[in-house]
Amino acid sequence: MLEQILSKSQELIALYGLKVVAALLILFIGRLAAHIVRKVIHNVMARTKVDTTLISFVTSLSYIALMAFVVIAALGQLGIQTASFIAILGAAGLAVGLALQGSLSNFAAGVLMIVFKPFKVGEFIEAGGASGTVEIIEIFTTTLKSPDNKIIIIPNSKVSGGNIINHSAEPTRLVDLQVVFNYKDDIAKIEGLLQEILDSDERILKAPAPAIGVAKLTETSVGIAVRPWVKTADYNAVAGQILKKIKELFDNKKVLPPLG
Description:
Shape: rod-shaped
Order of helices and strands: HHHHEEEEHEEEHEEEH
Helix content: 40-55%
CATH architecture of the largest domain: Orthogonal Bundle
CATH class of the largest domain: Mainly Alpha
Strand order of the largest sheet: 4-3-2-1-5
Number of strands: 10
């Protein structure tokens, strides 16, 4: 009896021993190779200055895919039929893909935004039907903070699916205001007073030079455009200050109140 057990054990070891050793080697070498590939991908993407969020996601995804291939190869070495296993994984992947169709579109949009960078954290944008300062750009969503301190979380597919207006991309901005006056007012004199207001504010840039001129005529009024250039960071403060100075300057004159 003992001899039969020993004989059977030797047969099993002879039959499966090398396969088990080969499978373990495949797992060991495959895992080492997956680590190396992940490190290479990380270094290449880091050198090209890709966003760290995308680097982390791509390297993790590549590692998981390689390890799945290694495990399947090891199971095949043991003589386990992997065709049905691969088919099950494929079917599961298709089902998950259909279930997460919206999330996948958000993911694709997030990758494109991270790669092409239409805006950055800290910039003020209008996108996806909302406006605010960019707080976080993630793979699936973008978070904005509105001027009244509300947090707005927008799916990336909505952000990239429409127009994106980036108010902070350029270092300077044009303050485009319009002031309304009566036909009886001396337009030349008014333009001179408006120029004095602009000249008194050091935040207004000398180049490009501010533009002041008639922009619109109606049956009862004349619209004069006031268009100075300022640094982007000064835009809101300067626009409000200009309107305030115009109001104070013309308070005692017979003109219509300024509109901005």
